[in-house]
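Summary for the lay section of the report: proteins are chains of building blocks that fold into shapes. Here we show the chain for ABC transporter ATP-binding protein and then a coded description of the shape we predicted for it.
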Amino acid sequence: MRILLDEVTKTFGDVVANDHISLTINPGEIHCILGENGAGKSTLMNIIYGLHQPDAGRILVDDEPVVFESPRAAMERGIGMVHQHFMLIPVFTVAENVMLGDEPKTSARLLDYAAARRHVVAVSERFGFQLDPDALVSELPVGVQQRVEIVKALARDAQVLIFDEPTAVLTPQETDELIAILRQLSAEGKAIVFISHKLREVRAIADRISVIRHGRVVGEAPLGSTESELAAMMVGRSVSLTITKSPPRRDWRSSTVVSGLTVVGSDGAVAVDDISIAFRGGEITAIAGVEGNGQTEFVEALVGLRPVSSGSVTVDGAEVAGKAVKDILAAGVGFVPEDRKANGIIGSFTIEHNLVLDRLSGGPFTSGIAMHRAAIRENGEAAIAEFDIRAPGPTALAGTLSGGNQQKIVLARELARPLALFIASQPTRGLDVGSIEFVHARIVAERDAGAAVVIVSTELDEVYNLADRIVVMYRGEIVGVVPPETPRDVIGLMMAGIPAAEAVGSAR
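The coded shape description reads as follows.
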């Protein structure tokens, strides 16, 4: 089945998400759609899948114009989509999730669960997935959950499969397994659309690469393109993908020591289980792991955003565990949260006011209840210049800026004072390649200024680019601490819960 997009356009208010896009999706081909976050990739795929309707342009399936008014209409024409965030019901079994909305019925119009199980087993065995139809989805690893999503599409005889950022929650080994599955599907004649911003994966899997920038297709990249060449097509200029940094100058006189830290998650279960580790000044410690293994709860506890059940945290010898956030920040801790919109900025505030949110108790910006507006304005102008925040001026509302510029606001605020400990959680999530380059350089500069730097990232390329040492977390515990020279497959095994020593042996 071949899909042709002809001058497809989609707007949301004043924002043009897709601007006269024309693409052909061919059977038996893995077509990678490459672009920065916000380039319009997901919007385009949601149009194909019936979640959005185009404002202009046409969709043709095997040369026949079609209108998909809903995902069901798209599925009925043989289009399936595996979303970045799985669309599964955790309390349902594999068979129940796969057949939901298309349940087989007995002659008495009752649900035929036995037929559903047989169909799931048949599809799973055909593609070598080995899924247990009776397993609860909530008890499955994320890599297996993704296979359930794929089987959901294949069970409806999908001929076109769309994968939207499919490796975001996978270990390297699970990513390799997914790539093998996609190659098998394309060899059987399925059309595969693979949406990603991960250059390494695109180069590994693509039969064809289309690059989208600012809602427009800017061209097809040759299959032999280097990562730097692909990045340049994505952003429209030359970009350095590696950080040049000097060896770390570790200083135990400036350190943060965590001892026996235990933290309970929002669900009442232990999210951080008796962790002990020290972070030294002048060093970047990167915490790697599949998302949801306690990394978020760990760093939130360090900065006082989450209660500590037990344990100790000292910053330069001063105990901060259990203290208020403002007291921990005053002790020399800076924090970039993983969700900048929810926890990093106030969108309805101006840039200049976001830059002083944690500095309004005394100091140069206030006297009692009065704010020194001239000082706040001067600080805003200086930060905009230093951090290259693309905005009309310091009085622009933070919520009107791009994700990259919002992240620069958070960085500018947190790095405006001397720090003993700087924590950045998912520091480049949702950023374009150019903004990533800038953020990485500022993180290294903070290390070189003597702070202990802790980075939490699910992006292994980012971990390797920044780390002076790598800590891997799995189910709330530290699996191991390894140097940045550690092979990627070893890190992948550790992310699956295999201890460091055992992972090294298994990878040989």
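Put simply, here is one thing we learned. The chain has two domains: 3-235, 251-332+418-507.
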